[in-house]
Amino acid sequence: MKRKLTNILVTGGAGFIGVNFIRFLLGEGSSKPDYKGRIINLDALTYAGNAASLNSIEKSFGGTRYFFEKGDIGDHAFVEAVFQKYSIDTVVHFAAESHVDRSILGPEAFIKTNVLGTFTLLDVARNAWKDSAGQIRQDVLFHHISTDEVYGSLGETGYFTETTPYDPRSPYSASKAASDHLVMAYRHTYNLPIILSNCSNNYGPYQFPEKLIPLMVLNMLEDKPLPVYGDGKNIRDWLYVEDHNSAVWTIMQNGKTGEKYNIGGENEWENIKLLNALIEIVAKKSGKDVEKIRSLITYVKDRPGHDRRYAIDCSKLKKELGWKQTVSFEEGLGRTVDWYLSNREWINDIRSGEYQHWVEKNYGVR
Ligand code: NAD
Ligand code: TYD
């Protein structure tokens, strides 16, 4: 039976996946989900958040079906007020510090937002969702968005399933693992209706150019070095962001309360092979010389504790809820490159902000 979701609080809705999720749910993506309710986007607008990414949504739905609330998920009074103001019945919790390299350079923000922030959200939900008898309502939902990185690193074979023991290795993945445990604890202890999903690496429009794919695309366009960590043979499982969001929506509507679901692309690539495929696409679409771009590849010092391989087994989600990926890697990379080629303004905005200063301070020119 489908859940009835009417006032959805999206945390982190101004970040990469959140922006795409809001666009998807309000019918601006390539698929048209059946959602008639409201979306309340709560975002602190850190370096990774950009409200301008939702200008067209604000224009079409602002004040009727779309509302933006700037604030921190760790601010109890603020989150509580948002719950009351909009009669929130659903939370989909994307807000996080999300970049592994940053977590290595400065873990504190990760603990504050990912651990304490998630705790605050859970606690507000627990209090806001009590019925007149003091019992926690079961017609509401707290959907927590997590990552495959909580499972650690794989060798050459094997996959992460929903029962793989947690083994996080970076401050980022450790903070996400802690938040996952808190979410599960709120189910077991307080009967809060939660669902958890753990996804593999996403890519697509609006992704911050500190992550592999957009960083490489922009550096290719700007003739800058393409920094490959270590031997370039680390493996990631890539999923187009719209496919992630259709999975999240499927789970929110039909997933079993208290369960966790893995979401993946079933699309493993060594970083260096992915980079070479991307070079071909960027050369074709931009008219740049393929060999000239290839000459920009620069092997750099490895990331400390760099996980070797991630690979998701998402058969539970496929079998139980009938979800599947719809965008091939070639198609998704093509769409992504097209988007970065035609959205210079968005990119310049980011390049002129706090993000770029941080990158230059920590990495030199990038
Ligand atoms: P992102 O870094 O692009 O965006 C994060 C958003 O959260 C930003 O808009 C930021 O302003 C907001 N935010 C940060 N701290 C906040 C706070 N304290 N209060 C309110 N808002 C805050 O991240 P993303 O790539 O869109 O990832 C979204 C979620 O998906 C995260 O929970 C991440 O762990 C998870 N995830 C991401 C990937 C991926 O490949 N990007 C894969 C699996 C899971
Ligand atoms: P990233 O996009 O940071 O995602 P995650 O670390 O969460 O998987 O990195 C993806 C892979 O690309 C990872 O193996 C690290 C590697 N990488 C580089 O080789 N060079 C880079 O400049 C970046 C940002 C990542």
Short recap of the structure:
The chain is built from 14 helices and twelve strands.
Question: Can you walk through the features of this model?
Answer:
Helix 6 links the parallel strand 5 and strand 6. This protein has a domain of 248 residues: NAD(P)-binding Rossmann-like Domain (Rossmann fold, 3-Layer(aba) Sandwich), CATH 3.40.50. The protein is built from 14 helices and twelve strands. The protein has a seven-stranded parallel β-sheet with strand order 3-2-1-4-5-6-10, with helices on both faces. It has a three-stranded mixed β-sheet with strand order 7-9-11. It has a two-stranded parallel sheet with strand order 8-12. The radius of gyration is 20 Å and the shape is globular. The longest helix has 21 residues. It has 366 residues and is of the alpha/beta class.
